[in-house]
Design brief:
Elements: H1 2-17, H2 27-39, H3 42-74, H4 76-89, H5 98-105, H6 109-133, H7 137-145, H8 151-192, H9 197-206, H10 210-243
Length: 251
């Protein structure tokens, strides 16, 4: 209902204000641009490239986060070090590192992945470490009593127990990286001659094709909603809610 009201107000403002399509296109123009870009394959190609980049960054970020978290669990000194650097870098927006990424990696794919890994790794480390620390001694002792040890104890007892926190870390990492991806693509994707949805927005804005800009923004919003409220929500229903668990916060 609220979406319908919002779209109605949008159309009324455009119609009564007699705005130019370059400033505020009507809903029909945006819809036509969306359908045309999907039919031509342009929207799909740019969306696929965005997921390609974010997939690489997620792979790197997950591996680094779990290695560093594992080291922090076995060494108090490493744990203190990880707390310190997480406190420093976690509040730092990924887009703030764009000039540094440009100097270190140049223009292109590597710079974008660097920005995305930064947006992914810190919330994953913070929430995974908190989840592992929240595993009760009783659960660990029960696991050891039935013969579990090493990686088997971690995978069978610690990871399931810490999963609510790990899932929260993934949700935060996804939202951070999705926003950073679009911002980075509008800079590096444009300069490198290829890119995802951020580059598409930059390109269409450059050629004053405003309806296509709003169509790309619509796709970005829809993807964000689907991942958050469908993909992660389904995982949460099948795991956390089914198990009757909640994420525990570090005290």
């Amino acid at each position: 209902m609220f979406i319908v009201i919002l779209l109605t107000v949008w159309q009324l403002v455009v119609s009564l204000g007699d705005y130019s399509e370059l400033i505020l296109p009507n809903l029909r123009s945006i819809w036509d641009a969306l359908i045309e870009s999907i039919a031509s394959g342009e929207m799909g190609d740019h969306t696929a490239y965005s997921f390609y980049l974010i997939g690489q960054a997620l792979g790197i970020g997950v591996v680094l986060a779990f290695i560093l978290t594992a080291l922090a669990m076995v060494s108090p000194m490493i744990a203190d070090f990880m707390k310190t650097i997480t406190t420093i870098f976690h509040p730092l927006p990924g887009v703030a590192l764009l000039p540094i990424a440009l100097l270190w990696f140049g223009i292109g794919e590597k710079s974008i992945i660097f920005i995305l890994v930064h947006s992914i790794i810190w919330p994953l480390i913070l929430n995974t470490y908190t989840g592992f620390r929240s595993v009760s001694r009783t659960q660990l002792e029960v696991g050891r009593n039935i013969g579990l040890k090493g990686l088997k104890l971690v995978s069978s007892v610690m990871v399931p127990s810490a999963f609510p926190n790990i899932l929260t870390g993934f949700k935060i990492a996804w939202s951070n990286s999705w926003r950073s991806l679009v911002a980075a693509e509008m800079i590096f994707g444009a300069s490198g001659g290829q890119g995802g949805l951020g580059w598409l927005i930059y390109q269409k804005r450059f050629f004053l094709e405003t309806p296509y800009v709003f169509a790309a923004l619509f796709v970005i919003i829809i993807i964000g909603i689907l991942v958050e409220n469908v993909f992660f929500a389904q995982i949460e229903r099948l795991t956390v809610q089914r198990w009757g668990m909640v994420a525990r916060k570090e005290e």
